[in-house]
Specification:
The complex is a heterodimer of chains A (308) and B (82). Chain A contains 11 helices and 12 strands. Chain A has 308 residues and is an alpha+beta fold. In chain A, the strands form 3 sheets. Chain A has a 7-stranded mixed beta sheet with strand order 3-7-8-12-11-10-9. A 3-stranded antiparallel beta sheet of chain A has the order 4-6-5. In chain A, strand 1 and strand 2 form a beta hairpin. The radius of gyration of chain A is 21 Å and the shape is globular. Chain A starts with a helix and ends with a helix. Chain B has a single domain, classed as ACP-like (Non-ribosomal Peptide Synthetase Peptidyl Carrier Protein, Chain A, Orthogonal Bundle), CATH 1.10.1200.10. In chain B, helix 1 packs across helix 2. In chain B, 30% of the residues are buried. Classes of the chains: A alpha+beta (308), B mainly alpha (82). Chain A: One of its GO terms (molecular function) is ligase activity.
């Protein structure tokens, strides 16, 4: 399947989803409303994740989909992904500036140039607020920390692929601790992820992956990430068999975030971190693709896993 | 060239040890070179030697030791690829 065919398949699936009412278009690629049926699937999958991971004693944290700009700056996200970041700007002028803004708006000119950066930035991945929060608490307990987060995330990558949204939800478990604790967590979830998604009767594969780092520095980081097998993805075909979609990811950050925010283990070492992320919309889209647009007609075994 | 590589390593590599004490075959990753440190090192080497690493050299092996870096840079300076 070449690029033209892939793009056509993505557009066709998006059109089907819109026509069926599962996705509600907004006029912006990658920005959709969701129907009640779509949301029910997301909620049931969210509950399934809790069934698999909820006994591990994670501390639940729920953040809004925006991040303290200072945390964002400290995260060095702009070094690696400047092209995906979404910063929030707002009007900060006086009445004269307001009149200018309205005039420009009316005349169809650019009215945004006097907007100023606020102290919030869109959350690029659900785990970003967690590291500075944990760092502030001081050294980790002996058994480290396990955190459960769930948030809308923003990435500026408009696409007609319904599986590449600009605003989407990510559930995550994050492990912070010694290298051994963190690696054990990731191994556990690689196994669990496979088994859990297998129970939903979708075709899947797990493979080494890399993040979409920016530029030539990014090429270096990507190849390094692959060589060290720091990222795995659980892939399910949605609009293409040749290029299946990453629906879960298993990431080992080594001591990157531990260093950035000075997170220490009980024995004084720099903390290592790992996370497992669940792409909620992508999983829902995969289920609709493989079992049809009407969950009432899904195989009884799959319905039992999700609805009990 | 090795002296130039050592000075870029000291400045950009973020190593845990003194770059001057490393043997040319020592593993730089064992000496504390991280992925992000490697990016700084790559950019520093490009500036120091006025070369540009092609994408196929942008991997961990190219920067694993002073000797490996020397061979790669030499290849680029000579106009070929290491």
């Amino acid at each position: 399947m070449n690029m033209v065919d892939i793009t056509a398949a993505q557009a066709a699936y998006r059109d089907e989803l819109v026509e069926s009412g599962l996705l509600i278009p907004t006029g912006v690629d990658g920005l959709y409303g969701r129907s009640g049926v779509f949301e029910d699937v997301v909620e049931r999958f969210d509950a399934l994740v809790t069934r698999w991971g909820g006994q591990d004693g994670a501390e639940v944290m729920r953040f809004p989909p925006a991040l303290n700009r200072q945390y964002f700056e400290e995260s060095e996200y702009l070094k690696s992904f400047p092209h995906l970041a979404g910063t929030i700007h707002a009007f900060g002028g006086d009445e004269k500036a307001h009149r200018t803004l309205l005039r420009r708006l009316e005349e169809g000119q650019d009215w945004t140039e006097d907007q100023v950066a606020t102290d919030v930035v869109m959350t690029p991945a659900a785990c970003y607020p967690v590291y500075p929060t944990i760092a502030q608490r001081g050294a980790l307990p002996g058994d480290g920390k396990l955190i459960d987060v769930f948030s809308y995330c923003f990435r500026r990558e408009p696409s007609i692929d319904p599986a590449r949204m600009q605003l989407f939800r990510m559930r995550e478990y994050i492990r912070i601790g010694t290298p051994d604790q963190v690696v054990e967590f990731r191994e556990l979830w690689l196994e669990r992820g496979r088994e859990m998604m297998g129970s939903l009767e979708v075709p899947l594969d797990v493979d080494v992956a890399n993040d979409p780092f920016f530029g030539r520095a990014g090429a270096m980081l990507s190849s390094s990430q692959r060589e060290q097998k720091l990222k795995f993805e659980l892939l399910i075909p949605i609009t293409s068999n040749e290029k299946p979609t990453a629906c879960l990811s298993f990431n080992y950050h080594q001591d990157h975030f531990g260093h950035l925010w000075d997170i220490h283990t009980a024995d004084g070492g720099v903390a290592h971190t790992a996370c497992v992320g669940f792409g909620m919309e992508r999983v829902a889209l995969a289920l609709f693709r493989h079992h049809g647009f009407d969950p009432a007609q899904w195989p009884a075994s799959v319905r039992k896993v999700l609805w009990g | 060239m090795v002296a130039g590589i050592r000075s870029v390593l000291a400045e950009c590599g973020g190593l845990a040890v003194d770059a001057g004490t490393l043997a040319i075959d020592d593993d730089l990753y064992s000496a504390g070179l991280t992925s992000h440190g490697c990016v700084g090192l790559m950019l520093g080497l490009e500036e120091q030697f006025d070369v540009e690493f092609p994408e196929k050299l942008l991997n961990r092996r190219t920067f694993e030791s002073i000797a490996a870096i020397r061979d790669a840079v030499r290849g680029l300076v000579d106009g070929g690829e290491a």
